[in-house]
Design goal:
30% strand; 361 residues; 9 helices; 8-stranded mixed β-sheet; 4-stranded mixed β-sheet
Length: 361
């Protein structure tokens, strides 16, 4: 339950800034609020300072946070909120106000944050909730929402977190949203004036979204298999290539397995469909484009064993279509030069296709 609510943003060297500039974009512009069933997670605003100070200037809250002093000076709330807005603009940290509704009024409940180390592709999650809102599942709802958003939208491999060993409620929050305890450590807690034993936690994309599996609706599309064998799932994919020789990739949106990974457009075949028919349908549904069978050139195929099924995926090349590819299912789209394809994290089945496609193009 450690959110850096008093820590000055670290200075970055010009080399670190250059390295970050070469990576994928870290967040969509404007950062629209994230919603849950009961809460809204939005960027902190100067007007939040009074309520934030009132909630965090409480020993029972402050003692659980590593870098927050007690008493918490009122001017520090203004300074910290200003720093969070700067970090958000740079994509180095995402500290968000957690708000709820009391009647028609928006009420600040707490703060949830994620600090990003772009070089190591590691995020660090933190959160706190005002004492009068404890016991209502607020922390789990807010922390889980931000962690899922981060894996779906940022270039992260892992998210870590730490909680004081004498704070079992916060440890339970992390376990509830899918984090695993990975070890023990010690951290300086500013309000307590010394080192405190902590539990270390970590989560990957698979921990939060689950491993690839055959959804019930997709099971009939998988070829039957003998007892004990994995069923074969047939999926068709397409490398759309524009006039500049760039390839279109789509990023799996939040809510899907392997959210945040990039893939070639396509999808599972419906009963009775050929790969070409299924691909034409999927490209229309996903991207709003029309493709003729004659424009689909078979190129290669992927064969990959997931835990509960075996994926067989023919990859087609297409250079001609009607319409402009648009995101119609919430996915992010990117036109990528062949030599940059390996920079985009992809599902295991897609990765072997990258060198073949890069060398061909």
């Amino acid at each position: 339950m450690t959110t850096p609510a008093a820590k000055a943003p670290p200075r970055r060297t010009s080399r670190a800034r250059s390295r970050k500039a070469e990576r994928l974009p870290e967040a969509p512009p404007g950062f629209p609020p994230l919603s849950t069933e009961r809460l809204s997670l939005r960027p902190l605003q100067p007007g939040d300072a009074e309520a934030l100070h009132r909630l965090v200037n409480d020993w029972e809250v402050t003692r659980t946070l590593a870098v927050v002093p007690f008493p918490y000076p009122r001017p520090l709330a203004d300074e910290w909120i200003a720093s969070t807005r700067d970090e958000l603009a740079r994509g180095t940290a995402y500290h968000l106000a957690v708000t709820g509704r009391e009647g028609e009024q928006e009420v600040l409940v707490g703060v949830v944050g994620l600090r990003v180390d772009a070089a190591s592709r590691l995020g660090t999650l933190g959160y706190w909730v005002g004492r009068r809102f404890w016991g209502h599942g607020v922390a789990s709802e807010a922390a889980g929402r931000l962690a899922r958003w981060a894996f779906a939208n940022l270039d992260l491999e892992r998210i870590g977190a730490s909680v004081a060993a004498d704070n079992p409620a916060s440890a339970a929050v992390l376990r509830r949203i899918g984090f695993r305890q990975t070890g023990e450590g010690r951290e300086v807690f500013r309000a307590r004036g010394g080192e405190v034993a902590v539990h270390l936690f970590e989560a990957t994309r698979d921990d939060l979204f689950g491993i690839p599996d055959i959804a019930p609706a997709a099971a009939p599309e998988a070829a039957p298999a003998p007892d004990g064998a994995k069923p074969v799932l047939l999926v068709a994919a397409c490398a759309l290539i524009d006039s500049d020789g760039r390839v279109l990739l789509a990023r799996r949106p939040e809510g899907k397995t392997m959210a945040g990974l990039w893939e070639f457009p396509g999808g599972k075949l419906a009963a009775g469909e050929t790969p070409e028919q299924g691909l034409i349908r999927e490209l229309k549904e996903e991207l709003g484009i029309d493709v003729a069978t004659a424009c689909l050139a078979p190129f290669a195929f992927a064969s990959h064993a997931y835990e509960r099924f075996h994926l067989l995926m023919p990859l087609y090349l297409c250079r001609r279509w009607r319409g402009r590819p648009q995101s119609r299912e919430g996915q992010t789209l990117a036109w990528v030069r062949p030599e940059k394809l390996a920079d985009y994290p992809m599902p295991p089945a897609d990765k072997p296709l990258i060198p073949l496609l890069r060398d061909f193009l």
